[in-house]
DNA sequence: CTGAAAGCGCTAACAT
DNA sequence: ATGTTAGCGCTTTCAG
C-alpha cells in the first residue's frame, strides 16, 4: 500500500531492457520492437501489476485526454440526456468527461473554463448563459476547441450545434392550428435565452401564416428573475401561474390551446388547469416542448416537440473529436430537427 | 496561437528570478518571498497571460485533483441530484469530477476504475451494481479511497453512505396503515439490488407489526430482465403492468393501497389505474419512494418517501475529502433518514 | 531493433 | 529570501 508505485523503469530492469523499449511496447506505439521482447515486457508488466501513470504521458504529450462539459445543471434532465450522449462518445474515443455545473452563473462559467485550461483540456462543450460577445476569445486563443450547444454564442470561431427551436415551435403551433385551434396562447419564462426567443418567433410565424393576430393576453411571459440555481420546480410553478392568468380571461377571448416553451412549464399549466376544474384536453389543449421523460408520464400524456437530446450530445462530442484530431469539420453551425410527438393533451376542436 | 505556452521559466526570466521563486509565489506556497518580488512576479504572470500547467504540478505531487464518480446513469434523475451535490463540494474543495456512466455493466465499471487509476485519481465515489465480494480490493490496494453510495458493497475498507431504505418503506407502509388501509400491495422491479430488498423488508416489517399477513398476489415483483441500459421508461411501464395485475384481482381481495419501490413505478401504476377507470386516491391510494421532482407534477401529486439525494452527494464528497486529507473519518457506515412527504395520492380509508 | 539522454512544467530539498 | 538541482513518469529524438 505504501510501496512506491511501479514504473516503466521497474519493468525495464526486470527484463533487462531500456525504459524506452518498455514505453514503446506498453503505449502501443507502432515503433518496431521484437515480438519476444514485447512479450516479455507485457508479462513483466502484468506480473508487477503495473498501472501506467497517465500524468507522465500527458505532460509529455501535452494532452490530458479529458474534455470539459459546462452546463447549467445536470439536475435538468434535458442536460442529463445530452451529457449521457457526450460521455458515451468520449469514452469510446478514450476521453473522459469533466462535468461542470455552472448554475447559470457567468462567474462560475469563467472559473470552470480557467480550471479546465489549467488541466490542459483541449476541448470543451459548453451551453453557456453568457451572451457577452467575445468572452470566449481568450480561451480560444489558447488553442482550445469549443463547441457551443443549445445556446448560440456570438463567435465565428466556435462550432455551434443546437436545435431549430423556431421551426419546432412553428410545427407545434401549426399542429394546433390544423386541429382547429385559433385562440392559441404562448407561455414561457423570460425570453432571456436565444432558444426561448426562437420558440416565441416560431409561434408568431405560424400564427401569422394562419392569418391570426394573437391577443396580447395570450402571450404570457413571466418576469426575468435572476434566480441563481436552476430548478425544475421554478418552471413548473411558472406554468401554473401563467395558466392561471389565462383562465382568468373572459371565456370568449380565452385560448383553447396553449403552446408552452418547455414540458416542465406545460406540466405546471396542466396541473393548474385540472385544479381549476378545466378539462385537458377537453376544454384546453396543451402542447409542450422538449419531450423529457416526464411528458409521457403525465395524465393526459403530453403532446410535445421532441428534441433529440442524446443525439445532440453524441454529435457534439463526435465533432469535438474531429476538431481535436485536426480532421476537417464541415459545418460550423448545425441544427438538429425537432418533431411533434402526438400524445393525449391535444384534441381537435370542432367548430 | 501556435506560440509555445508560457511557463514559470518565462516569468522567471522576465523578472530576473529563479523558477523556484516564481513557483513559490504562483502556487500560493507559504514559503517566504519578499513582497516586492512577489508583486513583480504576479504582474509578470498577468502580463504574459500565464496559465499554470497543472499536469506538471500534479505529476510532481502525484495528485490529480480529480475524483471519479461512477454511477449507473446520469439520466436517472436520482443520480443527477446526487452528482450535483458531489460536484458542488468537489468544486469548493478545488477538485473536479470525472463522470462515469457505467450502465449497470460490471465490465464498464471495472474499465472506468482502471482509467481513473491511470489518471491518478485518489478518490472515487461509486454506486456499483457489482455485488461480487472483494472486486474493489485491487483498487483499494493502490491507495485509492472509495466511497460507496446508495448500494452496499461487501468490504470493510470502503465507507458506505446510503439511505435507510428499510426504515423508509416501514414509514411509508405505516403511513398507509394509519390511514386505515390493510390490503396493501407492494410493487417493484426485481429485487436485485440491496435497496429494493430493504424496501421490501420494511414493507414486511410494517405489515407484520400491524398483524397483517399480505396475500401473495399483493406482492408484485417483476422478473429480472438484464436490460443493459437504464431507462426511466422501464420502471414506468413496469408500474403500469404490475398495477394491471393488481386490478385483475377479485374486488374483495384487491388492495386499497399500493406501496411502490420508486416514484417512476408509482407514476406508471397511477397512469394505468386512471386508464382503467380507477380513481386515485379515491379507489386506490398510491405511495411512492424517492421523491424525484416528477412526483409533485403528477396528478394527483404523489405522496412519497423523500430521500435527501443532494445531501447524500455532499456528505459523500465531504467524507471523501476528509479521507484524502488524511483526516479522521468517524463512521465507516452512514445512513441518511428518509421521511414521508404527504401529498395527494393517499387518502384515509373509512371502514 | 534497442538504448541513452533530454525534457514536458512544476515542486521541494538543499544550498547560499 | 533566493537560487541550484534533481526529479515526478513518460515519450521521443538521435545514435548505435
UniProtKB/TrEMBL annotation, chains A, B:
Alphabetized SUPFAM superfamilies for the sequence: lambda repressor-like DNA-binding domains, Periplasmic binding protein-like I
What Pfam families does this protein map onto? LacI, Peripla_BP_3
Chain ranges passing through the membrane:
none
Q: Tell me the first and last residues of the signal peptide.
A: none
Q: Which SMART domains match?
A: HTH_LACI
Instruction: Enumerate the spans annotated as HTH lacI-type domain.
Output: 6-61
What is the designated name of this protein?
A: LacI family transcriptional regulator
Organism equals Paenibacillus cremeus
